[in-house]
TrEMBL record:
This is Chemotaxis protein CheW. Gene3D superfamilies: CheA-289, Domain 4, SH3 Domains. It comes from Telluria aromaticivorans. GO terms for cellular component: cytosol. PANTHER family: CHEMOTAXIS SENSOR HISTIDINE KINASE-RELATED (PTHR22617), PROTEIN PILI (PTHR22617:SF43). Residues 1-141 form the CheW-like domain. InterPro entries: CheW, CheW-like_dom_sf, CheW-lke_dom. One of its GO terms (biological process) is chemotaxis. SUPFAM superfamilies: CheW-like. Pfam families: CheW (PF01584).
Amino acid sequence: MKVLVFHIGAQRYGLHLAGIRQVLPAAALRELPLAPPCVAGLLDLHGAPVPVIDLDRLAGIAPSPPHYDTRIVVADYSLGDGSLRALGLLATRVEGVQQIAPGLLLDAGVRGAPFLGQVASSDGAMLQLVEVDQLLSPEVRVLLFPEGRA
């Protein structure tokens, strides 16, 4: 399985490459007044608004200053009714694509957050998968995707 490797704070994480639409340089975002701190803003992607989540803030750590390799990862987010929407993820220090053998992935036992998935040891360092569909709380999901309301 191929994953995009990036950092949340000092720790390495990965996203399934199959669920990624594109990876963009960090860009100016339109602020969303009264949005939770994890919502970085809206990205204008070819005329379509794409909500962007700051992964550092979502994880409860101080946002990292922008780096030369800070990116907005546009991923597929399932609304649960079979439809997919674009969701931007502000990721610090994107390292690139890495192949992970499925047999190396193990259940972490303790997740710490609902969006954290399996763990693998790769290149001498631990890497934990992020499950995009589990990133948003129900309140944030309704705020960002009101048409996907259950």
